[in-house]
Structure formats: structure tokens, C-alpha cells
Amino acid sequence: MAAPQDDMFSLCVDPTKVSSCVEVRFIDKIKGKGLFAKKAIKKGDTIFIERPLVSAQFLWNSLYKYKACEFCLRALETAEDNARRLSGIPDLSLPHPELCKVHPELHQACPQCQVMYCSNECRQAAADQYHRALCLGTSQEDPNHPISKLKDAWRSMHYPPETSSIMLMARMVATVKQAQDKGHWQKLFSQFCSRAANEEEEIAHKLLGEKFQGQLTVLRTLFTTALYDDHLNRWFTPEGFRSLFSLVGTNGQGIGTSSLSQWVHACDALALTSQQREQLDSFIDQLYKDVEKETGDFLNCEGSGLFLLQSACNHSCIPNAAASFPSNNFLLHLSALSDISPGEEIGISYLDCCQCDRSRHSRHKILRDNYLFICSCPKCVSQMDELDLTSDEEEEEEGEAEGDDMEDEMTDV
């Protein structure tokens, strides 16, 4: 008998309630709200585990056959199948296959449209929350179905590397449409950070490019045709749709899952002799080289979700917490990177490790361009008087890279 999937519903924090060790507080009109510790938290502790209100796999990621549960985004390929596809080696065999935690025999399809779930629990949860309103039934492969047209339009406007999905907005609408207490869900969604009109336009510009005004109009028309609901009529007006678009662009948290990565982590925990460890590490190193050669950097099932608690975390260039997805599904684990005192704000980094190591000037440029704010964390304050010598070098490198890109484009033409 197969081992059961992780019980995500007993593990996760109820998204409508605040964890007992943290609280959300209003800070000021500039920073808005923040997340603060209510008691002492030790380095390495899991602060909370949170399930998103809604989540969705990125559309290009799904199209390129990264198979994920339609509800929880758990990777559906076995580690071996995943490794074979990513490496382009069809007869590849992984050692220790028993370490793979994917159980295909538990997977279930929607009886109407055949989209796949990792378990009956996820299939039922999706149907109860939003899927009945979005199920295409026998029209799943019909390119003229309004939802199919909406997906195609989004793909034509937002190319990889993907950072958001129109289907996150669609699931927000579908959730409210199916809910008995529609006001409850509308109140939950209203708790996410909102933006001024000019900032909303900047976010749309960032996601869609130079022609964002016309593209927003096209998307709103398709969105309205596919999903209009009287209870949410404001979301379908030009201003309301732009606000909804901005909400997802500002608050969407990236989610990545991988059965191969889970298998590798399980291998790391094996008790092996020195020779066995060396052989296994050598196999894994070669596998990743083969994957990089065949597939590049796109290794995971990827999507995004709206997390109520996590969205209250402000950025810090010296974060005391970090989010991860170790359960190979949409459950977000927020863990402490250092000891956190009662009353201390919990901050995460919106930048990657390399970006965090750049100069204050460069960090501010990235944050201003992508998140529309200027950081005033202790690290930035302490570096206010420092010369931006590193930034000059970085800007020079960026200029050279832009020149190379332009040269490549001219060559292509």
C-alpha cells in the first residue's frame, strides 16, 4: 500500500487566522503594515506554515509540460521521470528510487475536464473552492473557449521568466463566485497591499511592457467575457481591473516545486560509506550538468500564490526570516535566519543573495524598479554615507551587457 501524501490541511496555518507567535501591525503610511514577533523565536525555528488563499501554476510553465497538481502545485512527475525529461536521457535510472515521494497511483483527474491533482483531497478542495466555476469540461482543448482565449492572450504578453499569472486573478473571482459567504472572501482579498493609480500603471508596465495600456484593455475584455459576476462588478471596470492586476503583481509570492530536488535532498540525508557518498555525489553532479545542458535554468514547476501572513512581511537587506517550500507543494514555510526578539519586526528579502551583496545604490535601484519603494532597513541606513564605487562598476557592466544585447538584436535583424 502506498504511503499517503502529506496532510497539507492539518499542517498549514488557517489563512484567516494569525499564527500565535506573530501579529500584523500598522507601521505608518509609507511602509503600511508589518509582521512582528509576539514571543522569542530561535534561529532555525519555523515561524509559521501558511497555505495561500489562491495559487496557480504559471501558464508557460504548464504548457512546457511541467506537471503540477492543479490545486497545491505538488510536482506530479516521479523524480526519475522528471530527471529523464530535464536531461533528455530517456533511459536514465536514478539510484535509490524509493526516496521519491511522488505517488502516481494516488493522482486523480477532474471527471469533466481531466486536469490532474495529486490526490482526491486536492481534487475535492479545488472543486469546493473555485474549480466548478472554471472547469472547461469537454471544451478543455477548445481554443475558442473564453478562458482559453484569456490564457493565450496572457502568454502572448508575459513571456518566461514568468512572475505572475492571469489565472491567479481568475481563481480570486471564481472563489468569490462559488462562496456562500462572498463578503468574507472579498474582505480577505482586500487585506492585501493596494497601490496608488500611478503605481498600478508602473506595475502593469513592468509585467506587460511598453504596450501595457492596450494590453490591459484586451485582458480586461477577455476577463470580463470569461468570468463576469455581478457581486464583483467593480473588479471588471477599467480602474478595478487595474487594481486587481496590481494586487497580484505586488503581493504574488513565487512557488517552486520539484520531485527531483526532493529526491536529491533525501539522498543528502542517507547514511553512506565514504565511497558510496562519493559515487552518489558524482552521479548527481553529472545529472545536473546534463540537465543544465538540455534545459537550462528552468527546473521546477513554478507558479505564484497570495499568502495573507507572508504578504505582511516587509523587505530588509539583512532579513531575519526566509520563505521556502520544502513540502513540494504550495505550503509556505517561514523560517528564522537569526534569533528574533519579542516585538521585533520580521523581515524577508525581496532580493536574491547576489543582489543583497550589491551596493546600497544598486539595491535601491532594483527595489525601486520592481517594487516601487526605497529601502530604509538598518543596512541601508548604515551605508547612507558610503561612496557608490561598486555601483559605478555594476552600472558599467550593465551598460556593456545592454550593448551586447543590442548588438545581438542587430545581428538577429
From TrEMBL:
One of its GO terms (biological process) is methylation. Residues 388-413 are annotated as: Disordered. Pfam families: SET. It comes from the Eukaryota. Keywords: Cytoplasm, Metal-binding, Methyltransferase, S-adenosyl-L-methionine, Transferase, Zinc, Zinc-finger. GO terms for cellular component: cytoplasm. This is Protein-lysine N-trimethyltransferase SMYD5. It comes from Oncorhynchus kisutch.
